[in-house]
Amino acid sequence: MSEKKIATIKDVARLANTSTATVSYVLNEVPSRYVSADLRKRVLDAAAELHYIRSTMASGLKGKKRGIIAALVPQFTNIFFNRFLLGVEQVAHRNNYIISVCNTFDDSVYEKQVLYNAIGHHVDGFILVPTEGSYSNYEIVRNFQVPYVVAERPLHQSHNYDFVAMDNYDAGYTATKHLINCGHRRIGLMTWRTNVTTLQGRPEGYYAALKEAGLEISPNLLYAGDFSEEAGARLTRQMLKDNPDITAIVYDYHVQALGGYKALKECGVRIPEDISVVIVGDPEWEFIADPPLTCIQLPAFQVGQRSAELLFDKILATGQDTPHTPVSETIKGTLLQGKSVKTLL
Amino acid sequence: MSEKKIATIKDVARLANTSTATVSYVLNEVPSRYVSADLRKRVLDAAAELHYIRSTMASGLKGKKRGIIAALVPQFTNIFFNRFLLGVEQVAHRNNYIISVCNTFDDSVYEKQVLYNAIGHHVDGFILVPTEGSYSNYEIVRNFQVPYVVAERPLHQSHNYDFVAMDNYDAGYTATKHLINCGHRRIGLMTWRTNVTTLQGRPEGYYAALKEAGLEISPNLLYAGDFSEEAGARLTRQMLKDNPDITAIVYDYHVQALGGYKALKECGVRIPEDISVVIVGDPEWEFIADPPLTCIQLPAFQVGQRSAELLFDKILATGQDTPHTPVSETIKGTLLQGKSVKTLL
DNA sequence: GTTACATAGGCAAACGTTTACTTAGTTTTG
DNA sequence: CAAAACTAAGTAAACGTTTGCCTATGTAAC
């Protein structure tokens, strides 16, 4: 009930009967500052008694680190970015940082607001998953020399930044290759029509696997549409109609696969007897589906972790001694076998 | 490349050839301050030219609002809290606030760290989803009079706080009632053995529905276990063995339902012909399951929204004019019909 | 018995804003 | 026409920390 105010360093100094300087030195454990055991104890006791908590914003004003990084992701209900953020959070926490999670909704106007807001908060660094138009938004981040790492989607206007992403090419390749290894020859692909360039790695991997196996690469087998269940269902029906001879489908996105799976069942197509299915992604329901889906597990958590690690390397690099050449890393996914692929003789 | 520093109000004042006071007044659009059109323009131009961004931490030092709230949730990979956070974010953004999302991992030690950290950042308010032992952790929040709203799980040591949660009792009741309406008489329940008191509303709702229908309430029909797929599977087998006569099962948690669904299929039980199933929760895969699950859609987004609205009511209530009696709200879920329930004659 | 260093701790100036005061000139009012 | 009221803008004191600089001992070295 008492109108208690949060204790300041002055209150602690007063109670410990010393100066704020000493309190600051004691609490920051500055080794070069001599403080007698007695006084140190008085300070510590006073701080404990008053429940003193350093004001990060006051100390931030003096050029100290703020202990906060911002992560901008396009959709935080997407399980992929969820796991990604979990990876970021783990590393942040290990460094005693908190993380401000911002959803950009894949909208660069919204993103810009969020970015300015965060800059105003003097965050120590950014983990950025770009959206279209991000490059110009990032100008302030570059100008103010706030450390940042770009994740998952590259900026095509520049190559001068650290980048971590999952290996989309490998994911597309592995999914397709698995079907080929199981004897499939006519394999359809359903993908998302997007401008996000890394994601184009998925169809590229598909092509590469086909080519390597000497299979015909037909544009008829490629279906691209919206990032929606509806598109997945509609295009699946279309694909079946256009290509009565296909034996397998690769779904590049779980959302489309969801619609596709339903459409296949509705058409009376049996999985995997009539059509085998592999999806890129591990949406959590891959094994509840009937039959359980063979899928490519994506390294979302690891991408988050690695991005954060790189960011902290930069944040904690005190001087700008080493000019730091930008790194670009990709992390591969893993094939998880379900029961949606039939082995052909 | 230039070692550009972020512009301060002084830089703007210098460029506009005026004082920092005027800049501050102009930029804050203080109506009581007279500024000539000419000077105002000079200030605005200077600010734009220098890409001035107000330092939230410096202005925060002067007792201004920080524009940041913290949301502490136990698990942010849980789809429920995801949607919940989306609701919080929506309201926060509408108020021009950013949100710091912190995962407590249902660990009160971790939670305490996060809480102290956030207090040090002088966040303007908290959305708190408690974990066990939270009450004492919240002491600093109470002491420092930082506004907060508790969501989803109540604190049983006090009643003096704002609280928003989904209606677990209603969810349990509605799920069970639906089965009863479809003619089921022997209905099993699988739930999570937890100390989170609100969650006990789910089994209570189940009991209430049975009682209302004059059905036998047998402890044999109640199976409680871990929050895991494995427990869901194991206990489902046990339930079937113990009660050969049951015709339906209510799963209180989607994670257990996942294991349960698999176990049912492995045992050769047909859904819904042999056993009908309703789950509490809408985990995103409810309709990919085979057959699609009848479920209770949880109002996660709305709970997040409402919590944030209450929080902003408190944050924005300038004076402490009205002493504010604590509110406690619950929001009901909705029945979503799948094909996992058979209507008995 | 100076000089030098190690130990111990206080003073006060930043950091970037906000805002209560102050100063002045220009209208309006009685 | 003097007093009041409005318009316009600058000064400087906070806010809570950090840290360079200073002072004052005690003790070891020359």
Gross CATH architecture of the largest domain in chain A: 3-Layer(aba) Sandwich
Globular, elongated, flat, extended or rod-shaped: what is the shape of chain A?
elongated
Output the CATH class name of the largest domain in chain A: Alpha Beta
Helix and strand element order of chain A: HHHHEHEHEHHEEHEHEHEHEEHEE
The major β-sheet of chain A equals: 6 strands, parallel
Strand order of the largest sheet of chain A: 2-1-3-4-5-11
CATH-defined topology of the largest domain in chain A: Rossmann fold
Please provide the count of β strands of chain A: 12
Multimeric state of these chains? homodimer
Count of alpha and pi helical runs of chain A: 13
Judged by helices, strands and strand pairing, the structural class of chain A is: alpha/beta
- Classified in CATH, the superfamily of the largest domain in chain A is Response regulator
If you compute it from the alpha carbons, what radius of gyration of chain A comes out, rounded to the nearest whole angstrom?
A: 26 Å
What portion of residues of chain A belong to β-strands? 15-25%
Number of domains of chain A: 3
The span between the termini of chain A is 78 Å
Mean pLDDT of chain A: 91
